[in-house]
Amino acid sequence: MDPRMRARPREAHASPSPAVAANAEGDAIEVLESTDVLPMAPEDHWKTLFDQFDPENSGYISTEQFRSLLNTHGSELDPHKLAVLLALADSNADGRICYQDFVNLMSNKRSNSFRRAILQGSRQRKSAALLEEPGLGVSQRLVRHVAFETLPREMDRKWYYDSYTGCPPPWFIIVVTIVEVAVFVYYGLLLDRWVLQVSHPLYLRNPLVYHPQLRAQAWRYLSYIFMHAGIEHLSLNVLLQLLVGVPLEMVHGALRIGFLYISGVLAGSLAVSVADMTAPVVGSSGGVYALVSAHLANIVMNWSGMKCQFKLLRMGAALLCMSAEFGRAVWLRFYPSVYPPCPNPSFVAHLGGVAVGVTLGVVVLRNYEQRLQEQSLWWIFIFVYIVFVLFAVFWNIFAYSLLELRLPPLP
User: Fold this and answer.
1) C-alpha of 121 from chain center
2) In the 8-state DSSP scheme, what is residue 373?
3) N or C: which end of the chain has fewer CB within 10 A?
4) Cα–Cα dist 271/254, whole Å
5) Angle at CA of residue 262, ends 217 and 327, nearest 5°
6) What b-and-e string marks burial along 140-154, b requiring 16 or more CB atoms within 10 Å of the CB?
7) Reduced to 3 states, what is the DSSP secondary structure of residue 110?
8) Taken in order 6, 11, 14, 15, is the CA torsion positive or negative?
9) Taken in order 201, 207, 208, 210, is the CA torsion positive or negative?
10) Considering only CA atoms, which of 111, 113, 170 is closest in space to residue 143?
11) 350 annotated active-site
C-alpha cells in the first residue's frame, strides 16, 4: 500500500473538526483511564528527552522547554493525552514542570477528575494568583487559603480551588468534635467536675474508657477518644483537631482523613496495651497527633512548595501546643492516682498517633488526587501497620498471662 494512503487516516484522526472535538471532549477524557501507558514512547525514552533540558538532574524543566518537547515529540502520544499535557503547561504558574507530575499523568496515577480539571482550568484561568483576584467572596478566599495551607504544588492548588464545591462538607472532623464535647459536658454534669475530671473516683466507671481489665471489649480501643481527662485536655485536642483536621478534610476528603484519624486512634490504644500495660487510655490525642504530625511532616518535606504565610512561626506554634499537651499527659500519668493501684491514663497513645502520621499520613497528604493503591510506599506502610495491629492483638491475648502481670482491679 502507498505510504501516503496509510498516512491520511492518521492525519484525519489527529485533526478532527472543531465541532466533533467539542462534542467528544468529555468522553475523550474518560479514555485516559485506559491502560495504554505511553503506547509509542516508553518512560525511559521520555526521561532521556527530559534530561536534555535538565542537565542538573533537578527533576524540573521550564514550561517553555516542556512545550517545545511536546511540540517536537507529541506525535508519538495519544492526542487526548497530548491535550492534557499541553493544558498542564498552560496551567502551571510556577514556570516549571516536574517530571514526576508528567509520569503520573501519563501512567494514569492521577484521577480522571484531575485530568479533566486541568483542561477546564487551563481555559478558565491561566495564572490567577491566590487571593489577588478582584471580587472574591469570603468563601472563595477561604477555599484558596486552604489550598495554599495544605497543598505544595501549584498544579494541585489550581485544580482544588477551581473545582471545590463544598459538597460534601468536612463532616467527619466536625461530627467527631461535637460528640467529644457532648460526652464531656454530660460527664461534667454527672460528676460535677470540669478540670481534671479524671481525678473523680467514678470517672473510669463508664463504657467508653479503655481499661486493661476490659481489653476484651474491642470497642474500647476506639471509643476512648470521647472521654477526656478534663477541660484542659479537651480544649487543646479540639483546637488542633479543628484548625488542622477541617482544612485537611476539605482538601483530601472524609474517607482519607477519617481513615488516617481512626488509624491513629487505634494505634494509640494498641501502643498503650503493649508499652504501658497497666494504664487506661482517654482522649482523642492519638487521632489528633496523627493528623498534625502528617501535616507538619508534609510541610517540612515540601518546604519550598508550601506557600502558606509565616510557615516557621506557625509550625513553632503547633509544636508548642503539641508539646504542652504531651507534657500534661506525661505529668498526669505519674501524678498520684485517686484510685490506686490503677494508674492515671497513659501518654503513649500520643506516640502511636505520631508514628501513624509520619508514615501513612505523609503518603496520604503527598498524593493528592492520586490513587494510593498505586503508590509503593502506601502498601509498605499499610503492611507495617497491619503487622503492628496483629502483633498487638496477639500480645493482648497471650502476653498478660505469660508475663503474669498483675493488673489493677476494675474501677
Assistant:
1) 23
2) G
3) N
4) 25
5) 90
6) eebbbbbbbbbbbbb
7) strand
8) negative
9) positive
10) 170
11) yes
Q: Which residue has the cell 511536546?
A: 70
Q: From the candidates 122, 269, 285, 293, give the one annotated as an active-site residue.
A: 285
The three three-digit cell numbers of residue 318, written as one number: 503547633
Q: Per-residue DSSP letters for 53-102?
A: H-TT--SEEEHHHHHHHHHHHGGGS-HHHHHHHHHHHHH-TTSEEEHHHH
Amino acid at 349: A
Task: Please tell me the distance from the alpha carbon of residue 227 to that of residue 284, in angstroms, as a whole number.
Answer: 8
Burial of 70 (0-12, 13-18, 19+ CB in 10 A): middle
Angle between helices 285-301 and 348-356 (to 10 degrees): 40
Q: For cell 473516683, what's the residue?
A: 201
254 vs 259: CA distance, rounded Å: 8
Tell me the CB-side half-sphere exposure of residue 325, using CA atoms within 13 A. Answer: 31
| Residue-by-residue pLDDT tens, the chain, 411 positions | 444 444 434 334 344 444 334 344 444 444 344 334 434 345 566 677 777 777 777 777 777 777 777 777 766 666 656 666 666 666 555 667 777 667 666 655 566 656 655 555 554 444 344 445 556 677 778 888 888 888 887 777 777 877 788 888 899 999 999 999 999 999 999 999 898 888 888 888 889 999 999 999 999 999 999 999 999 999 999 999 999 999 999 999 999 999 999 999 999 999 999 999 999 999 999 999 999 999 999 888 888 777 777 788 888 888 999 999 999 999 999 988 877 878 889 999 999 999 999 999 999 888 776 777 778 889 999 999 999 999 999 999 999 888 888 888 877
| Candidate list 80, 228, 295, 350, residue with the active-site label | 350
Question: Does the annotation count 337 as an active-site position?
Answer: no
Q: Can you give the length of the chain in residues?
A: 411
- For residue 72, give the C-alpha cell: 517536537
Q: Which three cell numbers stand for residue 239?
A: 483546637
HSE-CB at 403 with a 13 A cutoff on CA atoms is 12
